[in-house]
Structure formats: C-alpha cells, structure tokens
Write a structure and sequence with these properties.
Order of helices and strands: EHEHEEHHEHH
Structural class: alpha/beta
Number of helices: 6
Strand content: 15-25%
Helix content: 25-40%
Radius of gyration: 14 Å
Shape: globular
Length: about 160
Amino acid sequence: MIRILGCGNPLVGDDGIGVHIANKLMEIHSQLPDNVEVIDAGVGGLELLNFMENAEQIIIVDAVKGAGDIGSIHRFEIEDIKDAISGDALSIHDTSIADVLCIAQHVQEMPKSVKIFAIEIEEAKEVSICLSEKVQASVDEVINMILDEVRQKQGS
C-alpha cells in the first residue's frame, strides 16, 4: 500500500497546501494505481503515526518555511531529515515531521520508503481558504512529481 498524506490547515491559507494537493489527488484517483490511498491528514502531528501503519510507502505533502523561495518544491527522503531539529525544521505545525518520523522509528515498524514533498510558504497566520498565487502555481508540478513517484514504485 502506498499512502499519500496531505498535511496542513486549509483554513490558514498556504499552510493548507498539503490538504489542497490531497484533495486534487482524490479528484483524479482513477488515474492512480489501486494500491494508492490518499488521506487528508490535517495538521498531522502524532496522528501521522497511525497513518503510517501497514503502508509500504508513505508520501507526505506539507508546507515548509525558510528553505527557499515561496512556491519552491523540496523533495526529501527520511535520511534527509533524520537530523532535523524540532520546531519549524520541516513543518509549521506543533510537532514537526522530523519529530514524528523519529518517534515512529522507535515505536513501530517503518514503511520501506518515506518521501516528503514540502512546498515553501510565507508565514501563514491569517484565516483564509485560498492559496497565494506563488504557492498555487506549484500545485500541478507537485501533483506530477507525486504521480511520477507512484509510477516509479509501480515499475519496481
């Protein structure tokens, strides 16, 4: 099972980018292989541990702040973030993805593959259901990158 987790708060503008992408992937689910499950993981946190159970591959989509230009896309593997510090390292949520993955490695069997697609945002504090132009412009590219990732996994 390949599980795609869209993280973020869609009521706080760009912070909801992961959820927006998960929703778009749900709309085109017929284009995904049968063994792919797409989940709106909300703000994630420790709940991500449950979503990782019984998955061969996890793809996490989330917002990141401070790693590049607004709207830029970063692709990480678990090895890339093992040493990430708590806080804003890979997430703007209370518990970072790095923290959750570190905990997961100690308390449960890990998926064979964990990939993270992080989209650079500005500070997200205002209530809004809309994405900024720069972040919105990255949506199709992120979706294509995820589809490529899933197809590569099918081919292996």
